[in-house]
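mind reviewing these tokens:
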Amino acid sequence: MNLKFMGVAALLAISATTAFADLPKATELVSKMGFGYNIGNTLEVPAKQGGPTGWGNPMPSPDYIDSIQKAGFKTIRLPTAWYSHSSLGQISKVWLDSVQTVVDMCIKRDLYVVINSHWDTGWLEDNVFAENQERVLKYQTNFWSHIAYRFKDYDEHVIFASANEPGVNDPRGGSGAEYADNGQLTFGDSRMKILKAYHEAAIKAIREAGGNNPTRTIVVQMPRTEIDKYELLAQNFPEDPAGKGYIMAEAHYYPYQYSLMEKDEGWGNQFYYYDGMGSATDASHNMGSAASVVGSKLYTDAQFDKLKNAFTDKGIPVIIGEMGAIKRMDLTGENLRLHLQGRAAFYGYTAQSAKTHGIIPIVWDTGAENNKNMTIIRRQQNVVPTIFDYEVLNALREAYSMPPLEGNSIDSYVNKSLDDSEKSFKATYQFQGDTAETGTLSYKFSAQDWSQYKAISFDMSFDGSADASWSAVVFFNMSGNWDWKQTDLGSISNLNGSKRTYTVSFDGSSSPSIAFTDQSKVVAFGINVQGTHVTGNIELDNFTLIKKDDSKVTLLDFNKGEEMETGGIASVANSSTGIGEKINFVFKANSYTDNFTYENTITEPLKIVSHHLAANKLMVRALPGAVQAVFTTANSGRTSAKLMNSLGQVIARADFNAVPGANAIQLNTSFRGPAFLIVKQGSQQYTAKVMLR
């Protein structure tokens, strides 16, 4: 027997001889735990992805924990990685020390702390299958023995959660009845029995770790933490050596169309505006109030009724371990105001309904401050942590009969949304040639409905030279079935040495004007440069769509200061031979710039001719619907690329054979928001954070 791996629980049980009083039952904690807050995207970041700071957040500080406590939160959930900080089943002492430091900050401020085992490469969550059971049970036993022993002397303020979202990211897909769960293998009774065994392994290890652990409150999760799967947990509830009353159940609440959906689909649209707070000018994105609509008030009450009847009424408290909705900062003006007001109302009503049903709501907080964030307390800026979203926080406080805090976030969001200087796209396009040529810079994205817009505005300048006998700049779009329409913007010489603002109308009301094959399905637009002996740079900035009511929206929310400011594919084709010419396309990302020379022909895909990428460096650019990456490797061999969202879910992956030198890979995804790209070949691994558009 490998005592280092297998015998920890037993050894700890033998050493734990001190007698401790029974801790309060789980039901006694509900009123004290109030509403809670996740320190998300921090301690759960796998070690090989940079650890706690790898996804852009700092380690929690005393000031930050103070801000959470002063905001009114009574509970902190700590999503935590353990597997990637372990060796042969033993968790690193240094890592346990780091986690304990954060826990102590919370306990010092009289906060309840829910320590969980998060995704962490999916060692448990992706492996709720019979063939993985033996291995997962060993790790589950060993990890919780270590964790519980470290915190054995803590009182009821420390709570353990067996898992996070078990089965939410199963790496098995297919079609047919057995893959009815959004393309994943169905989570039925047989798999629930496996999950029950995982929970019971954690419970047993914790109970045997001595100290206060025999009666410590433990949280177990329903499959995928989906409320609709609550019956599986209710019918297969784990056995507890402590008897009844010391276990809580966990669900998560992200009503998809309202909380996370980022692209309208044929089966339904995104909801921008909450129940009872619909938009008159954007009705296609109103939620409505019907009980059948996911996320509405009646729907929320019905979902929480299920949890109350199955668990709370039977002496099993429930936590909503994660809940929230993204901020849709690509809206502007009054529609943005209406969205943000409704979003605060969603948080407030969900918290109030949870409280009424005896459920503890815990909000998810990403720490990010860009579009699609769920942040309430600021932590990424080099300032003392402050409240980032007053309206959401005050809605939560109101649900718990707390007075509002003075502050306003919505006005600043709305005013900023109308400030073109803060939101723009800028690219430098360099080209040269000795013969007649065409240079195209295009922006491609999933089908978008532009029917509410009447014009597009942008700035353009040219620094260089061209044969005066012939040159032209053309603005084009492709819509419907990729049908091309264009309008002439004049000669390159009109731009030389100065920046000009162009406004291209869609309805013919002013010149220049451009038509669409289908304005409800615009799939690309761009600038086409034609001329002889052209050498120089074109700069494009401040792309803004103008609505029919004269309000403005910056195209695809290209924010200055984010990691990637480029979003296009550049190509050059010789107009007479069709053979590609070489071009340089400059990528700008924060403080560094890398240059790549590409070659393209009509018979081959885009390929790298030369590059200036430092060894052991990954270059990433985000396009609408895709991520492209360039990296170098010394050897050929099997290589994997994986894209994960901020919830730790794998949203795209590819396996391929890399070659010595520069390699390029593209992953396609409809997900938008913060994500992490991992490219791995053998022991060599690249990681990069990327903002998906």
